[in-house]
Amino acid sequence: MQFTIATTLSPAVLKIQGLLRKTDRLRLPTWSRREVERILVRQVAKELDRALPNQQGHGRRTAQVAHRIGRALGLDADALHDLLLAAWLHDIGLLMLPPDLTEGSGSLEPESYVAIQQHSRLGATLLEPFAFLGNAAILIAHHHERWDGSGYPYGIRGSFIPLGARILSIADTFDAIRVPEISEPALRNRIAVRIIRVASGTQFDPHLVHLLEECLIEGGRDQNPTLNSPRQSVQSDRMKEDAP
Do the beta carbons of residue 25 and residue 57 sit within 8 Å? Predict the structure, then answer.
């Protein structure tokens, strides 16, 4: 089986590029620029949801979890902002692949899996021309790298992987884990964290896995639904000002 990367941009990609181009041309003070960029990138994420309906809401939920980890780590405002932009758009490279690879729900042939592995690099390439997404594009390019160096697309390891990409990797996986037989969100999340813990030190940065566990405990203590129920978008009052 042969696979090809789309050479003709889809209408969804063209629309997204138009939205990003408008955002890139904005010249605003830093304090307002970040807020406007977040609003407009959230609109782009909605377009991404429409183009990839089987992933609807995944970018938003990934951003919520990444936001919690980033805050717990003490990221500064610029780094946290770039992390949120990357989280909302981290799967945009899927739009550059043939639809049969992104719409199917069954198991993939080896050749198809190789093609899917290109989506992080393709997404970064798609976003690199937009100056305000330069740092986010780097995080997207590396969000499938692994702590032990066995990830893709470049096979870098440990602290050589950008910190935001390591956070994004955990947040992406946390939301993607499915536990169909469990309907209670808090229990599902505890199971997801246990699964991630198994890969601590191989797939994931061990320190960040520990922070995810702390965020889960804190979420249970203050009833914050960001980690109690990643399918919801409600935020606690304490986080509303900076929440994704």
Answer: no
